[in-house]
Amino acid sequence: MSADPLGSPTSHERFRLWITDVEVTPGNSDPNCSFSAMMFIDHELVCNLPTIDSTGSLRWSGLFHCNVSPTSTVALRLWRSIAGKSRYFNSPPSVFSEVDEETGEVTLELAEAAWIVTIKLLTSATAGQLFPDKLEKLAIIERAYNSLAADSPETTKYLFKHALNFANLAVQALPECNAKVSFLIYMKAWEQLLEQRAQLDDTIQAILRGLTGIRDIVDIAGQASDGMLAAAMRRSKESIYGILTLLENASVHIFNRLSTNHLAPVSLEEAGTDQSFDVETYLSRLKELQTLFHSSWSPILATPTEIAVADDDELLDTPQQGPHTSSTIDTYDMLRLLRPLDPNGYDPRQACMDGTREAILTRIVTWTQNRESTEGLMWISGQAGMGKTSIATSLCQRLDGIRALAGSFFCRRGDLDAGNPLRLINNLVHELAMWCPAYAQEVAYAIRANRRLCNSHFDLRYDGLIKKPLQRLKSLSMRVNLVIVIDALDECGDCESRKQILDHLHEMTQIVPWMKIVITARPISDIHDYFTEKYPHQSILQLEDHDAISAIRAYIEGQVTYLAEKEHWPSDSIDRLCTMSGGVFLWATLAVKYIKKSHFPSLPRLQKVLSKQKSPVTDQFDALYRKALEMVIDDEEDEIKAAYLECIGAILAISEREPLATPDLHYLLLVVGQIDQLTLDQTIKSLNPLLLMTDGRCIRFFHPSFKDFITNATRSGRFHIRLDQFEAEPAACCLQVMQRDLCFNICKLETSHHVNKDIPDLKQRIDTHIGPVLQYACMHWIDHFIASPTQGLVKAIHKFMEGPQLMYWIEALSLLGRIDVAIEGLFKLVAVDLLRFSESGQVVSWATDARRFILSFYDP
Q1: Do 179 and 256 belong to one domain?
Q2: Ranges for the Nephrocystin 3-like N-terminal domain (predicted)?
């Protein structure tokens, strides 16, 4: 993180300084003359400027940073070589505090040779001048990249936007930290990333993947009101400054790896770029700083300590006198008529492990305390087993800690009490009354006036016990927003009653300004439709967008590490358990309980789980899948069942290779007209609890065990499908898409004399002319065919290969940088047994020739 402006009276300590250019004027006019230079800071050699042997300007550009004090000096030694004879010229040192803050320039004189050396620094003033244009560039790039498929190679580069958004957040909330300089450093690295077409190395990919934690911080801050943001950011200043500095270091590494940095430090030349960045240390430190941020972030103006010691009556900023205060109603006698569940509320044993799901919890708590937002209802959406109940429980604990929890209710399907909408109403009324004395008085008066309210129908009960009492408390002022948490709403009542509940919950948040409500639920169709159609401006938090792997690893390691060491498990056992969890907490919990429960050595059970053999883990997931399918597939409608299973098979076959966005999946499957759009749309909507929409776009089933279930006749019964039967249709779709859309010079290149890496706008041309569906078809048609070869497909391949489309396919893969797919695919096509199909001999012969042709030109 960069320091105060040079020469600032507060800049007494060492600070980070950025140099972007070194220029010597006049330039070189002698073609036989070459120049190089050495830069010294505080009399120590810090940078060797490489030789310039061409005429014209003498300018070295790049990124160089060092820690200096206001009294630090800089000097340059310029080397001139003519016909093998060298001479050097030394400049007198100049003090950095004398830099021109507006231009960012410090000038050195080489009086002996009449040269002027200008060293350009990135100061707060120059950063301020450049910042608006670069911020606009970020917005333009974000718009372009928002259309990317979630699994596109470009998506990894796109992660770097989180660093830029974080710096911009610091600029807005902490202007004194000079984060505009950090923003510009990050932008230099991102510009290099966006121009990169080759595969990124492992270190850079690890840096980029680590930025998902920065995204969480930006999301959290985005939930805060303007009034709370600056105060909360100041409380988290230490972690923010540390993150800015750490991301600067990572940006410099990326810049050095992907560009020619003429200002690379001497230490980097000695170590080499491959050894210059310790990515493990970087990621560990980044995680520490993120944890520090979450622990220091507080979305409320009063500190937790101040709130914790406040009396109940101090919850109200101003005392309120209700119209019934003077009555002799025995308030709590009346409230007992509600008959709340006992026990009621949250169970702390179900909370998340300490230190896990911090980003999600902090984001939700911040949202609940934003008084400037009109959003009053939040839906935490996630498939079964994703940890919604644990998150809801931990949320209740945090809200309790700041005295903002007004009530909670944990629904359970099949439970006469916990799955009953009427018990939900009574319990929420009782809990809110226990927390808010003014509301308790209003409810008690309503019950005294009409005791039948406690047992009336849903709408009457809501109107008398919640709506009218809250309307009388509109002017009540609260120190904190009160929050109601309802877990597993999808397990409460039926479709119609859930719509009633949601309507009333939304209305409650509109009646009084100090109430927020958070629900968790699977993405079943009625709740999904409610939020997307009726109240699209309410907040939805998708758990699938938040990686749970680190939390699951912490849980598994905490539960079985001792056992693994004691019984000498294979070294990769915990890694394999984490991978097999697929980000689903329920799987991890069931697997750990099953492994630990044995009275004998646990290794046999571990091996059973890792090999996907039948166990309580598979049994519970089988039951979950069976129940979900029974809810959407009518047993008596064979036609409907067949349509659903056909769609499931197609989604499985395609997502196994590369999940596609919903519109692209439509386009691919509809091209041969086997599955109509309405059927596919309804299937996806009905199966939402089992599907993941990564980044809101690409479709796949939420856990790998679904494929094991649906393709095993013993486990899935009447829902069983043979996956190979559903590979032929995507294969036919791919061939038809390629037959129709491939063409000569598909990207409209002006010349074929340039290699791909020398075409500056190749990516834009690919995005325009080779869309996601055509890319998928080119990449995967052979795999689909091999999984389910048919006579019809062999005939289609024969047609594809006998014309120019085969060469157009090779051209398209070349432009995509995936000629390896053609080589490997054609090899598999030649190797597969096709003798039973007519025309197969010609297909194999053409495939063999095509592969030889590619290999004769291929340069890996």
Answers
A1: yes
A2: 356-522
Measured in whole angstroms, how far is the alpha carbon of residue 253 from the centre of its chain?
23
Contact 234, 273 (CB under 8 A): no
For the beta carbon of residue 290, count every other beta carbon within 10 angstroms.
20
The fraction of the chain above a pLDDT of 70, given in percent, is: 91
Each residue of 344-399: pLDDT tens digit? Answer: 899 999 999 888 899 999 999 999 999 888 899 999 999 888 999 999 999 999 99
How far is residue 296's CA from residue 246's CA, in Å, rounded to a whole number?
Answer: 19
Q: List, for residues 81-92, the tens digit of each pLDDT value.
A: 988 788 999 999
| Residue position matching structure tokens 């026990």 | 343
396 and 479 in one domain? yes
Do 286 and 348 reside in the same domain of the chain? no
Residue 95 pLDDT grade (very low, low, confident, very high; cuts 50, 70, 90): very high
Q: How far is CA 598 from CA 188, 215, 335, 565, in A?
A: 56, 41, 48, 16
Beta 691-694 vs 33-41: how paired, if at all? unpaired
Roughly what angle, to the nearest 10 degrees, separates helices 279-296 and 202-209? Answer: 0
* Mean pLDDT, residues 103-121: 89
Among 510, 431, 492, 426, which Cα is nearest to 464's? 426
Q: What span, in angstroms and rounded, lies between the C-alpha atoms of 78 and 69?
A: 25
Query: Which residues face 16 on adjacent strands?
Result: 67
Model confidence pLDDT, tens digit, residues 437-471 = 999 999 999 999 999 999 999 999 999 999 999 99
Kindly give, in sequence order, each residue whose CB lies less than 8 Å from that of residue 145, ignoring residues fewer than 6 positions away: 154, 155, 158, 161
DSSP codes of every residue in 528-585: HHIIIII-TTSEEEEGGGS--HHHHHHHHHHHHHHHHHHTT--TTHHHHHHHHHTT-H
Banded model confidence at residue 247, pLDDT cuts 50, 70, 90: very high
What is the chain's percent helix, strand, coil content, to nearest 5? Answer: 55, 15, 30
Q: Rounded to whole angstroms, how far apart are CA atoms 772 and 7?
A: 54
* Same-domain check for residues 431 and 517: yes
Work out how many domains the chain is built from and give that number.
6
Q: What is the pTM of this model?
A: 0.79
| Type of residue found at 376 | G
Burial label for 326, CB within 10 Å (0-12, 13-18, 19+), is exposed
Tokens of 183: 């923003």
Span 186-213, mean pLDDT? 87
pLDDT at 686 over 90: no
135 and 172 fall within a common domain: yes
Kindly report whether the peptide bond that precedes residue 26 is cis, defined as omega within 30 degrees of 0. Answer: yes
33-41 and 44-52 beta bridge pairing: antiparallel
Confidence of residue 305 (pLDDT cuts 50, 70, 90): very low
> 124-145 and 179-195 helices cross at what angle (nearest 10)?
40
Alpha carbon separation from 473 to 318, 407, 440, 464 (Å, rounded): 12, 17, 11, 14
- Sign of the dihedral defined by the CA atoms of residues 775, 780, 782, 784, in that order: negative
Is residue 763 located within the same domain as residue 804?
A: yes
Point out the least confidently predicted range of 625-634, 692-701, 827-836.
Answer: 692-701
Give the C-alpha separation, 808 to 828, whole Å. Answer: 20
Shortest CA distance to 662 belongs to which of 633, 631, 640, 683?
683
Do 685 and 600 lie in one domain? The reply is no
The residue that leads in pLDDT, 311 or 674, is 674
